[in-house]
Amino acid sequence: MEKIMKGFPLSHVIGFVFSLILTFGAAGIALKTDLSFKVIMWIIGSLAIMQAGIQLFMFMHLREGEDGKTNVLNILYGVFMAVVIVAGSIWVLSSGHAH
Amino acid sequence: MMGIKWNELLITGDPLILGSQIAILLTMIGIVGGITYLKKWRWLWSEWLTTVDHKRIGIMYIIAAVLMFFRGGIDGLMMKAQTARPEMEFLNAQHYNEVFTTHGVIMILFMAMPLLIGIMNVIIPLQIGARDVAFPQLNALSFWLFFSGAMLFNISFVIGGSPDAGWTSYFPLAGKEFSPSIANNYYAIALQIAGIGTLISGINFVVTILKMRTKGMTLMKMPMFTWTSFIASVIIVAAFPILTVALALMTTDRLYGTHFFTVSGGGMDMLWANLFWLWGHPEVYILILPAFGIYSEIFATFSRKSLFGYKSMIFSIVAIAILSMVVWVHHFYTMGSGPAVNSIFSITTMAIAVPTGIKIFNWLFTMRKGRIKMTTPMLWALAFIPCFIIGGVTGVMLGMGAADFQYHNTLFLVAHFHYTIIPGVVFAVFAALYYWWPKMFGFMLNEKIGKWHFWLFVIGFNVTFMPMFFLGLDGAVRRSYTYSVESGFAPLFLLSAIGSAVLALGFAAFCYNIYWSARYADRNISSDPWDARTLEWSTASPVQFYNFAKQPEVTTLDPFWHMKKKNEGLTLKDSEIEEIHMPSNSGLPIFMGAVFSVAGFFLVFEWHIAAVVAAVGIIAGLIIRSFDYDEGYHVKKDEIKKIESTWRNVEGEVHNDVS
């Protein structure tokens, strides 16, 4: 924590720039292109996930403090669970002749 | 008023159920009369019902779970009696459906789970050198919510009707369309209440183990039972919310006409099976992991060696925890998810056998060249290995998607999961009770009766379930209330029924052992009668309410073993005694349990206004808790000195029951 407070807040600036790029990028793709609805949803969905990652690492101090490693592990575990439950269910229920 | 149909309340017309109703009434009158006659109400209230002591909460879990074991066992015996001969007319089809449903739910959720959580409650804080769990009052709430859910589920068969759609309660059968009576509401609501309790327990143990360990006990110096309970708690926190959501959707489907799982109206009945097993499969590992921990402690203690392959054990349980989340489809290969899904889940399922195999070999190597003591706990642990391997190998057979089409829905499957859960959990719990009984109550269970218990139970278990493998391979389907003479099933079914009677005798021997030992067992035992290795044995038996006068400092694995070897840290100087801060008792958890029961009961009967009124009590409880500023109390030095002198003096002149 202290180390970062003293120097130039480089990671914050990089994070801020990336957030701006991702936000305007998403808005541009949604409003200014002729891509199909499905493609737009996929692109802005992916951008949103990148955005969330940047927020977590650059601004929410995920890795800092004594619990840094634990926090990262918890987030990874949460993501794993969410992917298994949501993507897994969709895959299982929509494949074969089950649906 | 409020749409209450009084004439539907009590189940009438069945002599078996009438008998139960009378028995329940008489038992209740007997209990209330007995406590009043002995003037024990105040003692019961202040020492047990309002306690926040983890050891007493653990003991209450164990008592409740043993009662549930009895109830679930009676259900099992009724099924065995009904199928003992072809075309028996002891139970009709409907009654049989109800009995196998309650047998499954009670044995998994109200017997196996609370027994393990009870043992975890008693032992984990002691093993990590702590004075209580992280959130003592929340711990009491967990117990009372479990108890509330269990009681609500248990009254179903006399009031309102028993759930009858199997312990899995698959839709569309469990939906309003095909099960219009209120009976299946009990399933949705009682499990929800108990599930909240379990979820809270999981969080409590995760925090306890991460934050409350005594000085020097790093994660890699924790006893194996604490490790496995920790991982099981992590799985609880991950998996139980899935059950919560699934049951909530089931409740709204049944009570408020939504269409999450219905066949018509855009619902998807298979989504229930999917969500149920997304929780249900991790659930079986929540059961098995603490049991593996129990065996690890027992193998190490009675081989008089430290556990072989400690690190690979931890690697294995973490691998099991991750794999347990990605195998759920093997419970419904035949629903038609297609070859890609079935193949992937066959592979993940079989992969679980690898870390489990590592554990089995570690236990065998722990015993190698050990000076093995054949005590009752050790016998259970030894019997576990071959029995569980039969369960595991048949599990791999069932786990192959293509082969499963042959085995599924037969008694082969039923035999398989009884061969995993009974050696995996029930043997473990018996082993744990024999092993830790002196820590809980200050006397040991009788070894001789214990061996009768062991042999009757293990032989009975094998005679009951081994024939079911062959019945299943011959085509006997599960959940069928009868079969014809021509089927040729009769001899094996009869053998199985005889086995179940032996199994019941084993359980009776256990109950007799508790009675005999409580009356006649020697009270003058040492605080460490098994010559054990972990910290729970370094304090008094039964454990004093503050656990440790001075929290021990740990430098190695098996800390107590090394303390004894080096003769360090075993004594207590007066100057080392400091005041101890303890939490106060609280009546709020039992109050919450009561209002949850009442609100749940109204909701089961779909008396919505009454349920809302009762739910106000839940909100009131939460508000009262928010304004509760009780900081607990301090135990004075003199009192600690007095308590410590009662057990520390007798050391040296103790005699040992086991030799």
TrEMBL record, chain A:
Location within or outside the cell: Cell membrane
Keyword Transmembrane listed: yes
E.C. numbers: 1.10.3.-
Gene Ontology biological process terms from the UniProt entry: aerobic electron transport chain; ATP synthesis coupled electron transport; electron transport coupled proton transport
UniProt keyword annotations, A-Z: Cell membrane, Membrane, Oxidoreductase, Transmembrane, Transmembrane helix
GO cellular component labels: cytochrome o ubiquinol oxidase complex; plasma membrane
UniProt topology in membrane: Multi-pass membrane protein
Chief place where the protein resides: membrane
Transmembrane segments: 12-33, 39-60, 72-93
KW Cell membrane (keyword) present: yes
Molecular function via GO: cytochrome bo3 ubiquinol oxidase activity; oxidoreductase activity, acting on diphenols and related substances as donors, oxygen as acceptor; proton transmembrane transporter activity
UniProt-listed Pfam families: COX4_pro
InterPro entries registered for this protein in UniProt: Cyt_c_oxidase_su4_prok, Cytochrome_c_oxidase_bac_sub4, QoxD
Catalytic reaction annotation: 2 a quinol + O2 = 2 a quinone + 2 H2O
Family stated for the protein in its record: Belongs to the cytochrome c oxidase bacterial subunit 4 family.
Biological role stated in the UniProt entry: Catalyzes quinol oxidation with the concomitant reduction of oxygen to water.
Classification via NCBIfam families: QoxD
Name this polypeptide is given: Quinol oxidase subunit 4
From TrEMBL, chain B:
One of the protein's GO biological processes: oxidative phosphorylation
Cofactor section: ferriheme a; Cu cation
GO function term, MF aspect, one: heme binding
GO cellular component: plasma membrane; respiratory chain complex
Matching InterPro entries: Cyt_c_oxase-like_su1_dom, Cyt_c_oxase-like_su1_sf, Cyt_C_Oxase_1, Cyt_c_Oxase_su1_BS, QoxB
Any matching Pfam family: COX1
Places the protein is found: Cell membrane
Residue stretches spanning the membrane: 16-38, 59-79, 99-126, 138-159, 186-210, 230-250, 314-333, 345-365, 377-397, 417-437, 449-472, 492-515, 609-627
Catalytic activity: 4 Fe(II)-[cytochrome c] + O2 + 8 H(+)(in) = 4 Fe(III)-[cytochrome c] + 2 H2O + 4 H(+)(out); 2 a quinol + O2 = 2 a quinone + 2 H2O
Listed pathway(s): Energy metabolism; oxidative phosphorylation
Keywords: Cell membrane, Copper, Electron transport, Heme, Hydrogen ion transport, Ion transport, Iron, Membrane, Metal-binding, Oxidoreductase, Respiratory chain, Translocase, Transmembrane, Transmembrane helix, Transport
Cofactor: binding comment: Heme A3.
E.C. numbers: 1.10.3.-
Top-level lineage group: Bacteria
Protein family: Belongs to the heme-copper respiratory oxidase family.
PANTHER family: CYTOCHROME BO(3) UBIQUINOL OXIDASE SUBUNIT 1, CYTOCHROME C OXIDASE SUBUNIT 1
General function of this protein: Catalyzes quinol oxidation with the concomitant reduction of oxygen to water.
Name assigned to this protein: Quinol oxidase subunit 1
Organism for this UniProt entry: Cytobacillus oceanisediminis
